[in-house]
Specification:
Layout (H helix, E strand, L loop, with lengths): L1 H51 L5 H24 L5 H12 L4 H6 L20 H20 L17 H16 L4 H15 L9 H19 L1
Length: 229
């Protein structure tokens, strides 16, 4: 009896270990393509973010990417769950590989005793390392490119120059010249500058309206008359 329970523990433990490896392999197989797609989109997104929004910190970018990969992994895990094996199914796989002629299935059903441990038992599952490791390493390389490839932030766009009426610019220059030469008193200069600022305070769409141009002409004529005096 001790040998019976010892053999049972051996085969069941071996089945559980192999079952975990098989299920993990299913998960990796289903995850491979979505992981690469997520890594590509993440790398492109990181480059765009680093260029367009340099104020966003690298840890924040990494946190968003890690969350996205976690969501993709959970979805793939749910998809792979339907293909997962049970330990009893894995026992059938083991007995087929070892040529035990349904001895493990019969022992599980209580029909016969558990077979003794074989001296040389080959592995029922072997990893295909290139196929297994290439997707995660490629995803890691893409993420590293998105994070560390040199890219400069976009230069801020300079606002277009204000297209104010040329008469305002000429009056500004004339008032500045009068002030430098002290040809008129300060009160006059302040009054003229205030009237100019009132014109500028309008919406830009109104600068070239009929009323604004009439006010500009009136101000220009007043200034010309004052300068002659």
């Amino acid at each position: 009896m001790p040998d019976h329970y010892s053999n049972q523990a051996f085969w069941q433990s071996r089945a559980k270990k192999l079952c975990r490896r098989i299920n993990f392999a299913w998960f990796l197989q289903i995850l491979a393509a979505p992981l690469l797609v997520t890594a590509i989109l993440g790398a492109v997104g990181m480059l765009i973010t680093r260029r367009e929004f340099p104020m966003i910190s690298t840890p924040a970018i990494c946190l968003v990417l890690a969350g996205s990969i976690m969501i993709v992994a959970l979805v793939c895990l749910k998809m792979a769950f339907s293909r997962f094996e049970k330990p009893d199914q894995t026992l059938v796989r083991i007995e087929a590989e070892a040529g035990l002629n349904n001895a493990l299935s019969a022992a599980t059903a209580g029909i016969s005793k558990w077979p003794a441990r074989p001296e040389n038992l080959s592995e029922s599952l072997r990893w295909h390392l290139p196929k297994t490791l290439i997707p995660p390493f490629a995803a890691l390389a893409l993420v590293a490119l998105g994070l560390f490839i040199p890219i400069s932030a976009r230069a801020p766009l300079t606002p277009p120059p204000s297209r104010q009426p040329q008469a305002w610019s000429r009056m500004d220059s004339q008032l500045e010249l009068l002030g430098e030469q002290a040809m008129v008193d300060e009160k006059y200069l302040e009054e003229m500058k205030e009237r100019l600022e009132q014109l500028r305070a309008q919406e830009e769409e109104e600068w070239f309206s009929h009323a604004s141009l009439e006010a500009t002409d009136s101000l220009k004529e007043s200034q010309a008359s004052d300068m002659e005096n």
